[in-house]
Amino acid sequence: xxxxxxxxxxxxxxxxxxxxxxxxxxxxxxxxxxxxxxxxxxxxxxxxxxxxxxxxxxxxxxxxxxxxxxxxxxxxxxxxxxxxxxx
Length: 87
Fold this sequence. Notes:
Elements: H1 6-9, H2 13-25, H3 30-37, H4 41-54, E1 57-61, E2 69-73, H5 75-78
Antiparallel strand pairs: 1-2
Helix pairs in contact: 2-4, 3-4
Keywords: DNA-binding
Protein name: Winged helix-turn-helix DNA-binding protein
GO molecular function: DNA binding
């Protein structure tokens, strides 16, 4: 059975959906995630904040449009390594 980090159990449903979409599709912008999940941009932003707080989100600049960021799942989650989150 795959180890699921404890902080993922506490994610809201929107956070779990965004996590799954990023797992399947790889790097995406907030707008792309909103389109794919059919969630509002505000809900996606809330989900991304929850994922960031859980320490499972990687964010980098989207060079096609520097106003946006590209989001992906951190390598530690993909390889099932334990992560530490500072409180």
